Amino acid sequence: MTRKYFGTDGIRGRANTHPMTADIALKVAMATSRLMKRDDGDAHNRVVIGKDTRLSCYMLEQALTSGFLAMGMDVVLTGPIPTPAVAMLTRSLRADIGVMISASHNKFEDNGIKLFGHDGYKLPEEMEREIESWIDNPDLVSKDLPEPADVGRANRMDDAIGRYVEFVKSSFPRGQTLSGLKIVVDCANGAAYKVAPLALWELEAEVVAMSVAPNGKNINKDCGATATEALQQKVIEEKADLGIALDGDADRLIMVDETGTRIDGDQLLCLLATRMASKGFLKDNAVVATVMSNLGMERYLKSKDIDLIRTPVGDRYVVEKMREGGYDLGGEQSGHIVISHFGTTGDGLVAAMQILSIIKESGKKASEVLSVFKPVPQVLKNVKFEKGAKPLEQKIVQDAMSEAEQKLNGSGRLLVRPSGTEPLIRIMAEGDDAGMVEGIVDHLCAVIGKA
Questions:
Q1: What does the angle CA 249 – CA 117 – CA 147 come to, to the nearest 5 degrees?
Q2: Quick check: pTM over 0.85?
Q3: Residue 19, preceding peptide bond in cis (omega within 30° of 0)
Q4: Whole domain around residue 83: which residue ranges?
Q5: Which of 4, 217, 257 shows the shortest CA–CA distance to 107?
Q6: I want to staple 114 with a disulfide (CB 3.0 to 4.6 A). Which of 10, 258, 368, 450 is the partner?
Q7: What would the pLDDT profile of 211-229 be if each residue is shown by its tens digit?
Q8: Domain assignment of residue 1, yes or no
Q9: Rounded to whole angstroms, how far apart are CA atoms 98 and 353?
Q10: 104 noted as active-site residue
């Protein structure tokens, strides 16, 4: 069944436009409370609310807070903090619900609401459907509301940043430091603008911080994990050992070696997988990734007797598969990396700490460590479509896709799918013949655009 409000990563859209309005945020909070509120006698249930640095976060934070308080839930407000920090604090504070207000890597005009359960995992789809059934229910704001003496309280958490910094540092090998490494960190003017430079500095790195002056409108603007050009240039200018790029809510990690070369999530995931396997820390010698991960990575892992288990696109599906099979490591090409020993969701800073420890122990340059496998030529392009349009259902598109798959003839892969967070059709093809792959994607873009 199609969900009305929730996509692959919570509710997301243009701020102050349905469904990302104060009214819907209020109802989301009340609906979530109806579903998850426990009866503990006189004790109030607890909600942790974090946010990134978008201007619209103020509006949504207040609306969500009002909704939870009206339902008798106590609210802990962390201020700007990464998504994985909200997941961690939800568990640490024994809260019933965690909420992150963020549109991740999207532009500032967008925003979103991500919900976590008491265990720090994103809510399953069936629970999101139950919440949706309450959002539009007229009984939501009129049935069995708490008495005046039973409404909730809201408090600011002053040490949220410090708690998360200590958590990140605790994932770094005991007795090891980053002394001797010069690191440029691009915080995307987002949620990690304080915590990332601080954690690296406290581990004794020489830190050059970029994009750490959020103004509500510059999050992800020409910076961060989705736009690494400025970081690549800065690493070279500073003669740094490497660069770290996070996205707006810091659940993604992209790195840059000392030559200015961009290193994507596939390379980082592959490095971690081979490292963990060599130490016996990789359950069933398997790693979880999505259908977007490069064929070159799959071939390389196979040569090391490591299985690659693929899922649909979206870190929630990676985590679901990891939980289902008890796997230790999973991630996406886009930079979401989940290490189950440390957390319940993608964590750019924790993943960076694991990569940095490998570089530090090796004594080698980043370029000698981070490029693990040779990628198969892969082309990814997007086609924007109007709301309500269904171009992939048209025969001309289906015929073009069949023709493309015949051209690849088992030597590559084709993936055409609608984005789960934006009104885009994503077309990806990969294979050993770069020219053919480029031609296939361009042709499909033209056909789908026309459709």
A1: 110
A2: yes
A3: yes
A4: 6-158
A5: 217
A6: 10
A7: 999 999 999 999 999 999 9
A8: no
A9: 24
A10: yes
